[in-house]
Amino acid sequence: MWAEILFGLIIYRLVRLCLYDDDILEVETSDSNALFSVADRLKKLYGGKVYVGLRIPDADTATRQNIDLVLLTTKGDAVVVSVKNLDGFVLINADGSWVCETKNKTQTLPDPVEETRKQASILESYLEQRGILLPQGYLSCKVILPNPKCCTIQSSSFPSEVITYDQWVQLKSEAKGMFSGWIKGAFRGGKKETQESIQQNLSFILSTAPVWDRLELRGNKYVLGEFLEFKGKQEDLQALINIKRSKVSRLIIQKTSMLGLAHSRLQVLYTPRDYRSEGASASEWKEVGVRSSTEVLFQPQNSTKVRKFKFSSIVSMSLSA
């Protein structure tokens, strides 16, 4: 009996090692997952499009401003959304900064609402540089706290731009006031054709704006950051030689063996980058075969550590132009 239990534990550890490397476990509750979870729910609630992980050039600082989400709803809302995946008790200081207290640490954050307004201002300037002059007040801002372990102390003292976790879970598509009221001033009486034109131009520019590279991992896990290179056997690297960000926008990994063993092989489908369209047809996808042990070197957003992800752990990878 004990031999059977020991054998079972060994098999479990081997399967866990092959299927769930440390990097996947480490990002299980990451901020990237929270971004995509919020983006999915906003799209279901309000329709339209959600742009995730933008890196907007800031002319004043010669750097790039990270923007979590931009929501364009079917009703014409344009919202810059900051997602704060905070865990613990959150309260607001007199100066507008936030304090997040957990059992192990106390974290102080600059005013997230003010930061989101700054992001909206930088985005507005970027859009102007690309030919869109938005009416005053067209962009609105929201800060969302989606973590169920986040508890807001004196939530009534939070600005109206903040959606606490309790409000987030109760949010309905018909709820007015959360994301409405974006048309202000002289534009309130604007023509429908003008609004549609702005939305179309916004959609095009946001779909071609700089973004973080992204990895989609098994188990609906995501990592935003920067793809660096592939690592593996020479013949596999040779097969992947054409997969560069200048040539490829996305790759999909298929047919992984059940145990993901080092000697197994899988198929990598990739589409040539086409700046004229949003995607490629099935006939344009190309295929190469590589070992499942081949790795992607990836530096996650807000991290100085380079991570290694085995192809057997990856569902897809998208590369920013």
Automatic annotation (TrEMBL):
It comes from the Eukaryota. InterPro entries: NERD. Keywords: Signal. Residues 30-146 form the NERD domain. The keyword Signal applies. Residues 1-20 form the signal peptide. It holds the Pfam family NERD. This is Nuclease-related domain, NERD.
